Amino acid sequence: MNDTLNVLLSRLRMKQLQLLIALDDHKSLHKAAGAMAMTQSAASKALQELESMLEAPLFERSKSGMIANQFGHCVIRYARLMATDLTSLCQDIAEIRSGRGGRLAIGAIMGAIPDAVVPALNTLHASQPNLSIEIVEDTSARMLQQLDEGRLDLVIGRAAVSADPSRYQYQPLGDEPLSVVVGNSHPPMSRKAVNLRDLAGHRWVTYLSHMPLHALLEREMDLAGMSMPVSPISTASTFVTVALLQQAADLVSVLPTGIAELFAKHKMLRILPVKLKSQSQTFGIVSRKGGVLSPPAEQFIRLLREQKTAG
Q1: CB within 8 A of 144, min separation 6: which ones?
Q2: Does the keyword section mention tRNA processing (predicted)?
């Protein structure tokens, strides 16, 4: 391994990694060479040199073109990561020169945003008003992919959804309890305690099938002796869910309690007294193991930890 590392450090060129990305995009050496403004023979030589350094073939030729094998997929993933990191480096340098003060890209699951992410970000931005901050809300699985590609500095979510959680540094932060919600115009329920069976006549806004919250609702329905709604409205968007619930009194859904309380406070939703049987899912700070965090990312993590301690 050390011999391979020494060879890569002394002979690897960024142009070779860019060629791999172009080959993955175009599936053709001729087209990839054109995109790189290289001759096909120069591109072929660069690929051969890289395969020689790694002592492994990276592509297989097929009817549909040059297709990366398992070695190729591995190297291409890191090539894209390095290219993204270099792009971020140039952006950060440019922003620092212009006085804007750098950039921080954070991914967060829905339930972590109100009580964890927003307070920490407000404190961070107050202390660094020139910092450019990007926030992405998505599923943990999709955000881990963006973390792998270098598009995100941190993810506030779950590392356990990865096929290989050991690739990440994970620091637990808290739980994501859930609440059953309806629109504010929904008639009050006559009883203090309500169960899912009492909502059998309602239409549901559910989550997409690949999302963990869909599996959780499915489990709750099963525990209540019910089947999943036959014709639900499915969405991954909090905004769509809230807008739908506001417009129809017979709709019901499940939202992270922090989100539900935020909208209930502004009289846009009502939280029903339904006690769910599933345990709350935990979430935490996820970063790339072995990666170097920027000072803003480290400060953001410190703020999140301080909030947890204070809470």
Answers
A1: 155, 157, 159, 161, 162, 168, 286
A2: no
Amino acid at 237: S
* Per-residue pLDDT tens digits for 7-48: 676 777 888 889 989 999 999 999 999 999 999 999 999 999
Selected residue with higher pLDDT from 7 and 306: 306
> Quick check: 95 pLDDT over 90?
no
> Residue 226: how many CB atoms within 10 A of its CB?
14
d(Cα 289, Cα 38) in Å, to the nearest integer? 36
Residue type at 21 in one-letter notation: I
103-108 and 154-157: which strand pairing?
Answer: parallel
Residue at token pair 């480290």 = 298
Contact (CB, 8 A) for 252 and 181: yes
The residues that bridge with 66 in the sheet, in sequence order, are 61
Q: CA-based diameter of the chain, in Å? A: 78
- CA dihedral for 81, 160, 174, 268, sign (positive or negative): positive
Give Cα separations from 144 to 157, 235, 285 (angstroms).
9, 20, 11
| CB burial string 183-199: b at 16+ within 10 A, e below | beebeeeeeeeebbeeb
CATH numbers and ranges of domains, the chain:
2-80 (1.10.10.10), 99-175+282-310 (3.40.190.10), 178-279 (3.40.190.290)
What digits encode the pLDDT tens for the residues 215-259?
Answer: 889 999 999 898 888 888 999 889 999 999 999 989 999 999 999
Report in angstroms the alpha-carbon separations of 10 from 139, 166, 172: 39, 29, 39
